[in-house]
Design goal:
Two copies of one chain form a homodimer. The first copy, chain A, is mainly alpha-helical. Helices cover 71% and strands 3% of the residues of chain A. Chains A and B meet through α1, α3, α5 and α8 of A and α1, α3, α5 and α8 of B.
């Protein structure tokens, strides 16, 4: 009974461990993985669990398994880096500045477009979580609870992406939420006051409620420029 | 020997079959999958293969496996719809108009931003495949080989996304390439002449070569507006 319960956790641990060895480059691109028997031993799992782990990593574009060639680490541009699991595992590793900058540029493209779409078609029910997140940001800033403020800030941005009703942007909201959590941890470490962009968040909501797509897009563009300066990540 | 070779193919077939049953809603969101023994029989695979299939589908956000509850289909917003495998499997099914429209909106946000970044930092080597794709479009239009024209058109857009050197956009290039191939198949079915946007493709390249980020962004915006009209997908 207790073994049956423990098994999925062992699988997850082995999956993350092997994925992170690839993500860090400890096992380099183009390199062949160790033989099954050795991997089973180092990961502390059985052969059938190892095969399950391998299939999942194939499915995420990290490795490729061929009859004669063995299991090879694919090149970085074949990795599904937007896969929520891969992203979570990446975020536990030292930051890759190129990836961090890429995410910021992606936000600058996606979030203003998303604000525009939300102004065009979000219902009151879609906007309620955006407004709730903004209210929570206001309260937590006043109480100087910066951790709760940042949680509310992430909620604001991911709820707004969902309010776009665009399924691609909704999917990206997970990626952007994870990346934001990571960026905020870096900011808290430098203990800067995070309130510089609060008023702009209010302007984005006002433009959406006024059903002004162009203004909503523009307000979100300005908000992101401020937020990026706040994070000390520009340039 | 022949069994060992056939096995990965059987696994892939079972994986796609089960994924597509979920994608079409044949097994609905929130519903529990059939017991292992029945699934093995209907999919024609053994128990260990089925478990590998299940882990891959867990990894792509389609299902969740819990000790007591069994294996449940997750809600659509938890599916990793940008996963290249899921996207390929979706494209074999009848089109979901909401998803098609979402992809177009995503292109309108991502591709102009990508053209802007390419104008800022793409090297001659990054731009060579974009120029080669454009040359191929010109030749194939003249020869009225519309299938080859469309392949070159997809190459143009995906090479340009790669030339942005933004790893998020590079990742999205696979999604956008697949979606474009799908859209073109619909266009070919209507046998429309696809050359309406050719000159604009040239203008995008000219702006990038002139290192004019704002003009490159604007040209790509106009190109997409024309291309979407060409596809008969607007409105």
């Amino acid at each position: 009974m207790s073994i049956a319960k423990a098994r999925p956790r062992v699988h997850k641990h082995a999956l993350r461990t092997l994925a992170q060895r690839i993500l860090t480059g400890e096992v380099a691109q183009g390199q062949t993985l160790l033989p099954e028997s050795e991997l089973c031993e180092t990961l502390g799992i059985g052969r059938s669990s190892l095969r399950e782990v391998m299939k999942v990593l194939v499915g995420k574009g990290l490795i490729s398994s061929r009859p004669r060639a063995g299991t090879v680490v694919l090149s970085r541009d074949q990795w599904n880096i937007l896969d929520p699991d891969l992203l979570n595992w990446s975020m536990e590793l030292p930051p890759d500045p190129h990836f961090v900058m890429s995410l910021i540029e992606a936000r600058q493209a996606i979030e203003p477009a998303s604000a525009r779409l939300a102004a065009m078609r979000a219902s009151a029910a879609d906007l309620a979580p955006v407004e709730a997140a903004y209210a929570s940001m206001c309260i937590n800033l006043k109480e100087k609870d910066f951790v709760a403020f940042n949680v509310a800030d992430i909620d604001f941005h991911t709820a707004l992406l969902r309010a776009s009703k665009n399924v691609v942007f909704v999917q990206m909201s997970k990626t952007i939420g994870t990346a934001l959590g990571y960026a905020f941890r870096m900011t808290i470490a430098r203990s800067r006051e995070p309130g510089g962009s609060l008023a702009m968040h209010g302007e984005v909501i006002a433009a959406i409620l006024a059903r002004d797509p162009a203004l909503a897009q523009e307000a979100m563009t300005r908000l992101l420029n401020i937020a990026i300066l706040d994070l000390g990540l520009s340039g």
